Amino acid sequence: MPRLGHIKLAAAIAAGAVVVAPSAHAAGRPAVAALQVTVRHHHVYRGPVDGIAGGATTAAVMRFQRLHGLTPDGVAGPKTRRAFGRFARHVLGSRSLSAGVAGWDVA
Q: DSSP code of 74?
């Protein structure tokens, strides 16, 4: 049986998620956030995962492309996504998610 403190904490977290989620979503795009998680996973990006495409994200993609012998254009096109490996195999909304799955679409 949960203690009252845990119930209050869970309610506060749930209420915060309702308030924070819309502003976080408005700040950036999910596909860009997924790209940022991917380049962070490959150790070429240390910036925030905020879904906002900016100079640091583009530079990280270019760094990754150079390291993998690709033309460094800063665009995560098909060749770059293949180089990301299985992590970038699935795009957002392309499969049902469940516990234990990993990848671009989960990030």
A: S
> Count of CB atoms within 10 A of residue 65's CB?
21
Residue 105, token pair as written in the block: 């679409």
Chain-centre distance for alpha carbon 67: 21
Res 21: pLDDT: 43
Q: Is residue 70 part of a domain?
A: yes
Tell me if 34 is assigned to some domain. yes
Of 61, 83, 84, nearest to 74 by C-alpha is: 61
Q: For the full predicted model, state whether its pTM sits above 0.90.
A: no
Tell whether 82 is covered by a domain.
yes
Domain of 80, in residue numbers: 28-88
